[in-house]
## 1
Amino acid sequence: MRKPFATAYDAIKKLLKSIFGKKEEAAETAEIEEGAEESAGAESESKGETEEAEPAKPEKSEKAKEIENVLQNIAEEEGIEEEKVSKGEQAEQKKYEEEVKKRAQRAAKREAEDKKKEAAEAAAEKSGNVKTVVDPVTGEEVAVGALPKEAIYLKKYMRIPTTSDDIAVAINSIIKHTDMPKNIVILGRNGFGTVKVGEDFARSFYELGLVKSDKIAKTKAKQLNKMSLDSLTKLKGGCLIIENAGLVSFNKLVEVIKDSGPENNDYVVILTGEIDSLANFFEDNADIVDSFIYLIDIHKIKERGMMHLARGYVKEKGYKADKSVYDKMKNNLKSMEEGNIDRFIGFIDEVIARCDKREASSGKGDKEIKPSDV
């Protein structure tokens, strides 16, 4: 990193060059022309032997040397060193460029797959045929199927395209293949918060009888890397949610998978994180892919999907709201990262709390959110 004075140093250098540059150039040109005849003959004779040698540079004028000395003194006084790019920095830059390229390729592939899937969905809807998907366990074409009524915490996601299919397929497949791992991977976009989605899966698992306990533990990947798993004995039969899961170490996740087995603490592991980080993690650690069969893609959710989510969440909590309330919520979305589910649901929780406080003070219990609560 350049020191603060380095910019000023460059400016001084340019200024001095603009003052003395023309005089210096004229003096140097004269010196070159005086020796041109002599050097031309010498160069012709030795051309065969010294083809690769560079021609000698003319000596700097006294004025040029004086300027260079002044600049050098300034540099020494300010502690400015010549910038050099180490091999390590070059390697880091190359690694970064490769990662950017890889992510761009993945994004293009996802976009092509999304368009293909959307076209197939539109065609199926138009034809009236039963919508089919691939079962993650068997690889067979199966009907999407309805979400079981017990999965009440996941119903608010069912009007979000693609995501709704992923959720329905995962839940129905887990119910059908009870002998397979129930672990879930929730794929978001950079800046997303998807821990709330993980919590909704954990609560639904309990309501469906897929786990024995309603206990939920949440931890960030970096914290998990440092902690002992002894504390997870209290989680027996519940669900563990790992945030920013692309940063968890391979050895720690292997340890968690073993600890979560039916013969040990028997809990479900739910990974949440940015789609490319998780993609990199699974590419580098193919040995654990079989422990995470079910992928829930939330990275494409936009404003419309977020408003479907808001309506579903308000209803799930047992409250009512009219269009004016949702219009104000939509305006608040503009101040958030697009698709940040955790932040948006947190905001709606605050709105509900204001509604409760207002109704309590007036002695009402209608559970009806007003625009003033938003």
## 2
Amino acid sequence: MTAEVIANLIVLSSSFIAFLYGTFSILIKKMPLYLKMVVLAMACMVISRGYILLQYLVKGEEPDVFHVGMLGLMGCFLFLFSANYGMIDGLVDDGSIEFLKIRVLSWIAPAVTVGAFVLLCSFDNIDSKLVTYSVVMFFVALASRYHFKHLIFPDVEYGVVRAIRGYNAVALLLCVSTTILVLSDLNGFTYVYFGAGITMGIECIILIPLLKKEAIKWTKA
């Protein structure tokens, strides 16, 4: 069993446990739509790592072309981005000049994400895998911006940002770990890939319980 297979198995298991936990939490007790969208993000991660794991087991390697695993990874971070941008950001940021500095600072996260991807990738031989990963990193960068923004943005009125800062910190780390995983895959760094997979697994498995705990505080606030 290769390091890549073990890494993807860890992420698959962790995200599947997170998805099941989140699903049962939603069914048993009414939870905010925000949590439901993050549960769907974990479902996309399950699809992503499950497909790649099957490819390793059947063919011995991940395909170099666009595939369902890539689509699942895009979906994961699209849901994370949509949850923050569509449901939370309007509650905390009214677009006033007072918080312009924080809005500008929030672009540090996507700038670092995209910068690391550009600097550490070899563009000598551009193939479909690199192009597809570039699209994946676009969604990772979008998600990272709002996770970072909601970490540094002050609570003005509703107390929402303060309540879910722990979740946003872990989700931001998931963006970092995914970036490292993508870069190590493109550059053939097996042990870095393995370490990133372990880290992603840890982050996935604590993401939903942490958000559930914080969301309860938010709804009771």
